[in-house]
Amino acid sequence: MAAKVTREIDGRTVAFSSWDKPYFPAVGLTKGDVVEYYLAVADALMPHCVDRPCNLERYPDGVAGDSFVQKRLPDNRPDWVRTAEVTFGSGRRAVELCPASIADIAWSVNLGAITVHPWSLRMTDENRTDPDELRVDLDPMPGVDWPAIRRVTRVVGEVLAEHGIVGLPKTSGATGMHVICRITPRPYVDVRAAAVALAREVERRCDDATASWWKEERGQCVFLDYNQNLWDRTMACAYAVRPTADARVSLPFRWDELDDVEPKDATVTTTPGLLRDRGDVSTVLAGRADDIDGLLALAARDAASGLDDLPLPPHYPKFPREPTRVPPSRAARRDGDAS
């Protein structure tokens, strides 16, 4: 492997160790290749992560090696690396990466942070607590085929449009899809309530969709993970590299491209060319701040009809109308034992 390489990026001197270290050995891509990719797509990438705290999902030996999530930045970082102090859902605090330029992203790639994982809020002087994105994470259960994922994604787009919200669809770069919406900043509890209402409405309209938190109830469906809209949750942003063997990228696309999009077509190697040829379709979100009141009205109607909230992950505070955080099968056994 080559010795240290130094690059001038956005006026910063960024040092890279082992520039030729294999990061995607199956397709022959190195650390340097990933850095060059991010530099090539910087103008399209940065609007999706600038000013947003980011977790570091590190693959120090490439995607074929072990990985771990690092939420606290190492102390031995350059002074110029942009940071923000954040509070997690558990109440713990930490200093995280909060990119100001592509130099910050390039520095994190040197640590093995292949994917850019931003929060749904921007840490600006005006707003450090409320998200300005509503995120739809479509997570297929085992056995679900790509046409089913397309069908659910299409219904998500229809429901959003009916409620005055523009969604940006994108491949997750893994097995599913994402839809990103820029909204007027609202408290996390409101954004999650809107996401729950959206998931339930899609479930009502589409047999391939489920809003069930418990895997035992999902069947062979696409799960709409409403809890991705909780405080401190992160999601791979548009144009982020994913840790797949073939170095796939989370690629935004237009709604009229839904029937043709294939995750395998967007990789570190192909995406810069796709971006040049078709332009940055994610600019549809530029300057948007859509209102989620329509979805919140849908949530209110669900509550009035007797529907409880849906469960949260274990380490979050209990929500007022949240049901028990016990899988139905375990609850049934417990009730049987009590009788």
Structure, described:
- The chain has 339 residues and is α+β, with helices and mostly antiparallel strands.
- 26% of the residues lie in helices and 18% in strands.
- The protein contains eight helices and 14 strands.
- The strands form five sheets. The protein has a five-stranded mixed β-sheet with strand order 11-12-10-14-13. A three-stranded antiparallel β-sheet has the order 6-5-9, covered by helices on one side.
Keywords:
alpha+beta, 339 residues, 8 helices, 26% helix
The overall pLDDT average reads 94
Per the principal axes of the C-alpha atoms, what is the gross shape? globular
Count of DSSP strands: 14
Strand order, biggest sheet? Answer: 11-12-10-14-13
Spell out the helices and strands N to C.
EEEEHHEEEEHEEHEEHEEHHH
* Radius of gyration from the alpha-carbon trace, in angstroms: 20 Å
Treating each run of at least 4 consecutive H or I residues as one helix, how many helices?
A: 8
Binned strand content: 15-25%
- Helix percentage: 25-40%
Distance between the termini: 66 Å
How would you concisely characterize the structure shown here?
The protein is α+β, with helices and mostly antiparallel strands. Helix content is 26%, strand content 18%. It has 8 helices and 14 strands.
